[in-house]
């Protein structure tokens, strides 16, 4: 049986040096230009564009008519001969031998693909499949894929083991109400807001160093440019280490991601018009108390023991100007599983990794002592009974451990200087958006 070849080359795999060779390209009809004796079809594929040149005197009237009627964004495959021509994009054109129309696009298009006409983000997200035909929007996802690969290879290299923990859970991670309830047969269950409890339980197994890259679900009703109701978190947990150690892993990881993306995604960054700054560990560390002092100097007053507000984060970011850590948080601000400092229980071994624009990650050394954890759960107004499955893991030999959770979309939006977090996830989930 003969194999149907709809593509032999991507546009960037063809060059003027291939003059005279036959190739097959495939993609979308980006544009058509009718110029006197010539008809140009601009075909767009993932890697760029190809100019297909039809000489009217050498083309059948039937084909010319078919091509003239073809709507923009229709899917075509063109078999043709490469002809070097300095005037054409990338220095070559394709003289077609056969043009196959694989699927005709309906008209009018709900969205202008070229991006020359600016569309509202909402309109773009409604027609996301078309929106991502625009290279500027699509390249974000090529970078996203590379970021995830980079994180995996970095953590694998350091002896971390990738795990998958349940996303359907019976209890809240941190108490609070930011949970999506679901019906689970005859019971109520929830979508997981964080792998926190499960990755900690892994520390009692001897796996020692684990990571997970997975969705987190948060039912917060916020409508901001930095929150999603379904986000992606890269989480690690490591045994026999403290918070300082996992902070080291985190800052080296972020620096490595920047370096790797600069190296591997040069073309995508160029399309996005982004130049990545040098990110060099170690990052600056300021204590929570120092942060409050800095804020006071800049006219923002916060009570000791309050969480940092968005305006406070913004002011601090302007002062710090690069990635930095906030350490030594009030114990009352952070979750019950956070380890307090010995002898000064009012502060704890928690840290936030900040980009000047937003928080990127939160982490800490955890309480590994059963009685202490039980007491902390109670102190936070929660019931140890509902955490029984988790607490059990602390009774039969739990090593000291620490970890963090890093928001993948936050990392991407800050790295790529993108205003709205919705742009760096394929199909964002927010208060109003459940479809597509
Ligand atoms: P914020 O205070 O910025 O809302 P958080 O402190 O509630 O974040 P954590 O529970 O510390 O978030 O989660 C760890 C990381 O996961 C955050 O630093 C952030 O990068 C990411 N993250 C958390 N919630 C969201 C969300 N709703 N949308 C996008 N990313 C999130
Ligand atoms: Mg946090």
Provide the descriptors you would attach to this structure in a database record.
436 residues, alpha+beta, OB fold (Dihydrolipoamide Acetyltransferase, E2P), BirA Bifunctional Protein, domain 2, nine-stranded mixed beta sheet, five-stranded mixed barrel, 12 helices, 28% helix, binds adenosine-5'-triphosphate, binds magnesium ion
Q: Could you characterize the architecture of this molecule?
A:
The protein is of the alpha+beta class. The chain folds into 2 domains: 11-103, OB fold (Dihydrolipoamide Acetyltransferase, E2P) (Beta Barrel), CATH 2.40.50; 130-283 and 322-424, Bira Bifunctional Protein, Domain 2 (BirA Bifunctional Protein, domain 2). The chain is built from 12 helices and 17 strands. It is elongated, with a radius of gyration of 27 Å. It starts with 21 loop residues before the first strand and ends in a 21-residue tail after the last helix. The mean pLDDT is 96. The structure holds adenosine-5'-triphosphate (ATP) and magnesium ion. Magnesium ion binds next to strand 16.
What is the C-alpha radius of gyration, as a whole number of Å? 27 Å
Helicity level, as a percent range?
A: 25-40%
Strand count, sense and barrel status of the largest sheet are: 9 strands, mixed
Task: Give the distinct bound molecules.
Answer: adenosine-5'-triphosphate, magnesium ion
Low-confidence stretches: none
């Amino acid at each position: 049986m003969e194999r149907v070849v709809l593509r032999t080359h991507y546009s960037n795999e063809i060059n003027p040096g291939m003059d005279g060779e036959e190739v097959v390209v495939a993609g979308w009809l980006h544009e058509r230009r009718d110029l006197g004796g010539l008809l140009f079809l601009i075909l767009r594929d993932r890697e760029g564009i190809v100019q297909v040149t039809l000489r009217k005197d050498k083309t059948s009237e039937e084909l010319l008519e078919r091509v003239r009627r073809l709507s923009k964004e229709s899917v075509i495959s063109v078999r043709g001969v490469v002809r070097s021509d300095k005037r054409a994009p990338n220095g070559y054109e394709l003289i077609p031998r056969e043009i196959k129309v694989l699927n005709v696009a309906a008209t009018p298009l709900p969205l202008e693909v070229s991006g020359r006409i600016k569309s509202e983000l909402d309109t773009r997200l409604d027609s996301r499949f078309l929106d991502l035909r625009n290279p500027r929007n699509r390249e974000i996802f090529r970078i996203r894929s590379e970021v995830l690969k980079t994180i995996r290879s970095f953590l694998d290299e350091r002896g971390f083991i990738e795990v998958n923990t349940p996303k359907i859970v019976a209890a809240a991670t941190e108490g609070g109400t930011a949970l999506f309830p679901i019906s689970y047969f005859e019971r109520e269950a929830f979508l997981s807001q964080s792998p926190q409890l499960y990755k900690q339980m892994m520390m009692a197994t001897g796996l020692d160093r684990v990571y997970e890259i997975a969705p987190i679900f948060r039912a917060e009703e916020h409508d901001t440019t930095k929150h999603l109701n379904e986000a992606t978190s890269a989480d690690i947990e490591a045994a026999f280490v403290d918070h300082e150690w996992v902070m080291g892993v985190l800052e080296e990881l972020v620096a490595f991601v920047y370096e790797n993306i600069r190296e591997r995604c040069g073309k995508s960054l160029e399309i996005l018009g982004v130049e990545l700054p040098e990110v060099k560990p170690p990052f600056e560390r300021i204590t929570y108390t120092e942060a409050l002092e800095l804020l006071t100097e800049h006219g923002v007053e916060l009570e000791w023991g309050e969480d940092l507000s968005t305006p406070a984060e913004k002011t601090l970011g302007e002062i710090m100007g690069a990635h930095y850590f906030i350490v030594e948080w009030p114990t009352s601000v952070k979750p019950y599983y956070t380890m307090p400092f010995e002898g000064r229980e009012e502060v704890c071994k928690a840290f936030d990794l900040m980009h000047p624009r937003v928080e990127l990650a939160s982490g800490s050394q955890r309480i590994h002592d059963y009685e202490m954890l039980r007491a902390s759960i109670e102190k936070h107004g929660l019931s140890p009974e509902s955490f029984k499955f988790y607490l059990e893991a602390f009774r039969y030999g739990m090593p000291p451990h620490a970890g963090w959770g890093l928001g993948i979309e936050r990392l991407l939006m800050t790295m790529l200087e993108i205003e709205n977090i919705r742009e760096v996830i394929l199909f964002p989930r927010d208060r109003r958006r459940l479809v597509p």
